[in-house]
Amino acid sequence: MKKRKVVTLAHYYTIPEVQDMADKVGDSLELALYAKDCDADVIVFAGVRFMAETAKIINPKAKVILPDINSTCSLVTMTDINKLKQWREEHKDYVHVAYVNSSAEHKALSDWTVTSRNVADIIEYIYSQGKKVIYSPDRNMGAYLNAEYGYDMPLWSAVCEVHDKFNKEALDELVGSISGQKYIIAHPESPLPVLNDCDYIGSTHGLLNWVIDYNGSKDAVILVATEDGILYNMKKARPELDIRQAPIYTGCKCNSCPYMKLNTVEAVKLAQQEQGGTVVDYLSDDLIARARIPIDRMIEFGHRHM
Ligand code: SF4
User: Fold this and answer.
1) Options 3.40.50.2300, 3.40.50.10800, 3.50.50.100, 3.40.50.620; which CATH number does 163-245 get?
2) pLDDT score, position 180
3) Do residues 181 and 220 make contact, with C-beta atoms less than 8 angstroms apart?
4) 219 CA to middle of ligand 1, Å?
5) CB within 6 Å of ligand 1 — which residues?
6) pTM over 0.85
7) Strands 133-136 and 200-201: what pairing?
8) H or E segment to which residue 259 belongs
């Protein structure tokens, strides 16, 4: 009997040991595209639930396994789908752009999905067509886009509980205590006051590339306002640099996604052996078909414009 091909995908925010078990490590867009094009019989998705659902939506033939079904995301749990439907109804003449960090039901209610990597280009494109946009679910990212590009998009009000904790006062205090050169780089899920002070704002992939391409002084301190998992990749790529996580409101430098960390080595191993985890087989064909439309639109946009 032909051996089944098992492919393991791990998000940058999982623990280093799990990243080392993966065939592909990446941000949500990289992993979604990899899931779409890989010829796996089984995809083990070491990430969070909406990511595994996205993999199933764009590669419905594969058996997608999520190592721990409790690995949700605050952007999903803070969004009541019935209220979202109502909000959508109240903005009938708007184009609904949804961050990919959303449930399958949420995606099915949107016109486009976006990631932090392509959101600015896609929204700019929609506005250039003379259309108006509503943005969900990440309030911080929407506020940043409105401020940066002068939009007035109505915003849904959910946050990433990890990035929302980065705090301007604690950051100012830390920055003030560093006498030499320093840089602040941040993910746009962080609060606007933190983003206002940044040298660079970008997606997880963008932040990693910024560090890889950095050619300034080796004595500078690089403060990173994003989930701590990516610091492993940054330090691995540039071990000679002083890279530190930005502080949260308690002054602690340890902001970490509890859901991503549910992907333990043991849970991923069991999923790889098809002995554990949850098979993403609960999305109806109709839901998959509806949620796929905005995702395909995003992927197609990437082929045409990026
Ligand atoms: S880091 Fe934030 S956005 Fe990402 S999965 Fe965790 S809670 Fe969700």
Assistant:
1) 3.40.50.10800
2) 93
3) yes
4) 31
5) 13, 48, 73-75, 101, 160-162, 227, 257, 259-260
6) yes
7) unpaired
8) none
